Amino acid sequence: MNIKQFIDKYALILSMVIGAAGYPLFRHLTPVLPPMIGVMLFFTFCKVNPLDLRLHRWHWLVLGTQLALTAGVYYGSVALCRRLGVTADNTAIISEGLMMCFIMPTATAAPIIAGKLGGSIQNLTTFTLLSNAATAVIVPAFFPLVHPEGGLTFVAEMLLILRRVAPLLLLPFVAAWLLRLGYDGVQRHKGSDKRFELARTWAQIPFYIWTGTLAILMGDITYNLINAEYSWWALVVLFVGSLIACLLQYKLGQRIGFAYPAPSKGKEYKDVVINPAAVPTTMSGVSRITAGQAFGQKNTTLGVWMCQAFLNPLSAIGPAAYIIWQNAFNSAQLYNAAKVKS
């Protein structure tokens, strides 16, 4: 095993350990998280031509179910905590942390994992764009209800969050599309048939940026855990709750995709190796995998950042624990797919 293979295999664990151990340094780097997230999204959006995207019925069903669960889990957690006499601070930590496990948009790496499992990269990329656009609209409207900011009206706080979230999620998409249109236009002017396509080496950049964001997030979370006052049982609730949220969303997505399959896989990327032994023979099987990843695999980096920026900082434990569960679930799926191939 060479150095690159070692890093690729253990990137998650290494980033978390380094970030936690070096928290006095990494916690001061949180201001660079938004541009890092933006760059990750930009490279993801560069992989697909927006003109090739098609919306299917399962896209809307998964998004609607996600939004319903977000509101239901939040208000249900608040009501249960109050009934049990939980303090206001712990109620906020638990309810906001569990809510974030559902409201987070689909991860930019989800199409790659889906492709390796036999799902549709194109259909999942379409949902990734839809999910991030919906988050840019919904979060500014919902967060002021969840965590009112002292001295600000609902509209003022909504506009404040919108100014910080919407550009982060939408500008990378616009920039990637303009780059594609400009490159293709120049090639047509030159009489060339070449079209914009992200090189394989550039396609790996989001992965390495992601490891850096994870180290920074773990540093900030570790600092809050050491210095804040909280109940250990609240953290246990978040760890267990995030596990249930993770499994629930994967399974619900799979059921929706199987029941409402897309008519076709769509145009796939050339730079992604599909596991041929894992590819289902029916579109119900393809959509089952695709919708499962769309619902279950979350942009946890963005989720942790939103908790720290707009909610109780300790609620970030919810999406932080989700990182562990979703990576464990994806690893198990890839392992099973590799067994089938062998």
Describe the protein.
The structure is a single chain. With 342 residues, the chain is an all-alpha fold. The chain has 14 helices and no strands. Helix 5 (88-103) packs antiparallel against helix 13. The longest helix is centred in the middle third of the chain and has 36 residues, at 154-189. 43% of the residues are buried.
Mean pLDDT, rounded to whole units? 84
Oligomer: single chain
Described by the principal axes of the CA atoms, the overall outline is globular
> Would you report the number of β strands?
0
Pattern of helices and strands: HHHHHHHHHHHHHH
Radius of gyration, in Å, reads: 20 Å
Low-pLDDT sequence parts: none
Q: Span between N and C termini?
A: 20 Å
Helix share, percent? over 70%
| Biggest sheet record | none
Structural class, from helix and strand content?
mainly alpha
Proportion of residues in extended strands: under 5%
Number of continuous helical runs: 14
Keywords for this structure?
342 residues, 14 helices, globular
Tell me briefly what this model is.
This protein has helices spanning 3-21, 23-26, 33-45, 57-83, 88-103, 110-117, 121-146, 154-189, 200-203, 205-227, 232-259, 283-296, 300-310, 317-341. The chain has 342 residues and is mostly helical.
